[in-house]
Amino acid sequence: MLDLVRYARLKKKQIATRLEEPGTTICACCQHMPATATVGDTALCPTCLPAFALDAHGIDHVASLIWLPQLEQGVLSRLVLTLHVTCARQSVTVRTAATGEAGIAALNFELLMMRENALVDRIGTAKISEYRKACRKLDSDPVQRAHFISGIRVLHHGNSFSDAPQFYSDYLRTLTGSVTS
Ligand SMILES: [Zn+2]
Fold it and tell me: Which of its termini does the chain have fewer beta carbons within 10 Å around, N or C?
């Protein structure tokens, strides 16, 4: 299981490097989609990337933290990707969808977003940019740490990083095309 507490306490900056040959390696987190980038030695798909690229510029626009002990990070990424793809099929996003299957996907995404509050109650923030600081304040007691590891997840909002503003929507379009063809 991804230990986001240990990960956030690492001194090394966690930023992404694009893969020279995307698509040849499967994502180490969801073990489902092809990887397009690496953070350190970990190959990641676009949906799992924000869970590892904690120091990426503009990370809070791309993803946030939620409290969701019921699902492992990789399973959550698979689910969230499905919600984004469902919306992309109707040319909307989880924020703009209102009707049909996309509307249902948007409602489910909103339910996941609401899990931010449960994390704010525990560590004081749901922003990834503030996560390192919050982790340093956590008690190092192993039982408490295990508790946090068991529930902190990263939720991809369907947005792109600012250095490639169309990247995630293009990614979804590609998947939509492959689904409908
Ligand atoms: Zn992945």
Answer: C
pLDDT tens, residue by residue, 36-92:
999 988 999 999 999 999 999 999 999 999 999 999 999 999 999 999 999 999 999
Please give the distance, rounded to the nearest whole angstrom, from the Cα atom of residue 141 to the centre of ligand 1. Answer: 30
Strands 42-44 vs 63-67: parallel, antiparallel or unpaired:
unpaired
C-alpha 172 to ligand 1 mean position (Å)? 14
What is the total count of domains within the chain? 1
Gap from CA of 54 to ligand 1 centroid (Å) = 15
Prediction pTM value? 0.91
